[in-house]
Amino acid sequence: MREDTPGVVACKEGPDSDAVVQDLLRKYDGIVTDATRVQVLFTAHLEPLPKPPPNCEKIQTIYNQVRRYVPEEFINDPLYDPPNDEDEHKAKAIQKARAEKRKEATKKKKRARAAASESATGAAAELTDEAQGKQPTQQEKKRTREI
């Protein structure tokens, strides 16, 4: 950065390439703004975001696991209200789907590991058979054709 152009950076890919100039100063609608203008923009023109919808899993967890440790003075807070039946069913369905997905992923990994170990043991057995001069059986020939 040069002193006469603050906030402007020139980037080169190599020593002989042309410089790409990038202005790092704050811009709002393409107009360079100073720090006070940015503060005004962030305080005056920002609209508050709406609250996100309640997460049915979190509501169930808070009620079932956390509520018993909450002091009595805060127990009446709406955060610790019991979940309604609909939210409870949604939470259980989400948890069940997650468990199914995890179970499928585990099965897939086990199958891949079993296939890898089977091919490795089959290859090792073929090498020992060849070393001993044995001929492969029909079943072993079929297995090697399938692979």
UniProtKB/TrEMBL annotation:
Biased composition range(s): Low complexity: 114-126
- The organism of origin for this protein: Phytophthora nicotianae
Protein name in UniProt = Uncharacterized protein
Which ranges are annotated Basic residues under compositional bias?
104-113
Q: Where is the composition biased (Basic and acidic residues)?
A: 87-103
Extract the ranges annotated as region (Disordered). Answer: 75-147
Which branch of life, at top level?
Eukaryota
